[in-house]
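Researcher: Please predict.
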Amino acid sequence: MADPLFSPQLRSYLDGLVPPRADEMAGMEARAAETKFPIIGPASGQFCYLIARLHGARTVFEMGSGFGYSTAWFARAVRDNGGGMVHHVVWDEELSREAREHLSALGLIDAVTFHVGEAIAALKQAEGPFDLIFNDIDKEGYPDALPVIERRLRPGGVLIVDNMLWHGRVFDEEDRDVSTEGVREVTRMVSESPGWTASIVPIRDGLLVARYDG
């Protein structure tokens, strides 16, 4: 029997529960589907928006922002929380330019600061602390990012990490790929640290949601 956790039917069902998005967001979703560019998708985006709203986040740092899809969800949450700033970070100038165009079209450009460079280095240099940090960088970098995240979150801040089920590869004990091991290691680090209170939510490819109290 196929595992329902990763079934296309489940993803379609959950995405279908998300209220209609602006045309620009729908276009970003279509672009991702056509080019197989990884985005968090509607259900995870709505969940991230909800967490940011519940937390009252007004300063958000994204590690690995792509062409701005997840940024749009966080920027809308920050705006609805009364205003603030989301930091968008990518290596690629072209992706940064594309993100600016999308976020401008969505009317969210004033809530976003753009960085081009390596995400961990950008987080070290950015003015914080932050209410919420979203981590979606290359998975082998997850363990090295965590100590920096701990220094940059405010007390009681929230961390969201994407791809924590890693397409089911974390369940395969014979999979020793560096990305798979990175996901496993950061899961262990957060789970075993008394400073974190965390849970993995099995939406899409798994989101870790954690509160940091040091």
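Model: The helical segments are 8-16, 23-35, 41-55, 69-80, 93-105, 119-125, 142-152, 178-192.
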